[in-house]
Amino acid sequence: MENKNILRKLNLIFQEVGEIKKDGVNKAFNYAYVTEAQLKRVLQPLLKKYGVIFKLDVVDQRIDFSGKMPLTLITLKYTFFDTESGESIEGSFCSQGSDTGDKGVFKAVTGAIKYILSSVFLIPTGGDPEEDEEEGRDKYNKPYNRSYQQSHQHQNQQPQPQPQTQTQEGELRKVLLEEARELLMKIKNIDSQLYSQIVSNRNPTTEELKSYIQMMKNTLNKQSTPA
Predict the structure, then answer these.
(1) Which of 130, 144, 193, 200 could lock onto 67 through a cystine, CB 3.0 to 4.6 A?
(2) What is the pLDDT of residues 14-66, one digit of tens each?
(3) Architecture per CATH, 4-120
(4) pLDDT in tens, 120-134
């Protein structure tokens, strides 16, 4: 079997690596994430132990200036080398990074490193995005469901909108932020203008979040529809 040595070593690393706790916080969308530094702190000792080198090469790069913020799109080739046998396994990955300065490519590479390593070794990072999404959707739908039931119980009466308290507004915004984050992670090849619009708004209102969510849902529907 070809590459059996490098495969064996990657499997040994896979068996030893455990859950990685989220140590970073995205203040724009209010969620925790695993930083690149944290991921390297966990994996570097194991790569050293088994003599495996991880290498990245950028094979294609372009910058999209159509949005509010320049968007760097890159294609990478990644390789795992066995230092003893010389065997290697490689793959490719596309990534993107948005920045007003010269850090777009670095953000894209950082995102690629995190995604490739966590995916290859199936590293759990704590929490279940799908579970959070369902919980958020239930909370978001509760006011609608009550209004829907009331409208059928009193067909001759028009329900009057109730003003939201500051606590309710904050709770709704939290749910919308979580839903927007999950949708953003699901979209493949997101439109650069939409992506820039979302990431550049550091403190979106609930109405802006609802608008972003609807646009991202429309994008997902288009991507899931066969051409």
Answers:
(1) 193
(2) 999 988 888 888 887 788 888 999 999 999 999 999 999 999 999 999 988 88
(3) 2-Layer Sandwich (3.30)
(4) 998 887 655 444 444
Adjacent-strand bridge partners of 56 = 78
Distance, in Å, from the CA atom of 94 to the CA atom of 109, rounded to the nearest integer, reads: 9
**CA triple 70-76-81, angle to 5 deg:** 150
SS3 content of the chain, % helix, strand, coil (to 5): 50, 20, 30
User: Is the separation of the CB atoms in 183 and 214 below 8 Å?
Assistant: no
Question: For the chain, where do the domains classified as CATH 3.30.390 start and end?
Answer: 4-120
The confidence score (pLDDT) of residue 195 equals: 56
Distances 31 to 174, 209, 223 between C-alpha atoms, Å:
10, 15, 26
For the record, the structure tokens of 143 come out as 């006011």
Rounded to whole angstroms, the Cα distance separating 96 from 75 reads 9
Q: Packing angle between helix 166-186 and helix 206-224, nearest 10 degrees?
A: 30
Which of the residue ranges 14-28, 69-83, 163-177 would you say has the lowest mean pLDDT?
163-177
Is 161 buried (19+), middle (13-18) or exposed (0-12) by CB count in 10 A? exposed
Closest-CA residue to 94 (of 79, 74, 77, 114): 74
Token pair recorded at residue 175: 């749910």
Radius of gyration of the chain (CA): 22
- According to the model, what pLDDT value does residue 185 have? 67
- Return the SS3 of 52: strand
Helices and strands (DSSP H and E) totals, the chain: 7, 5
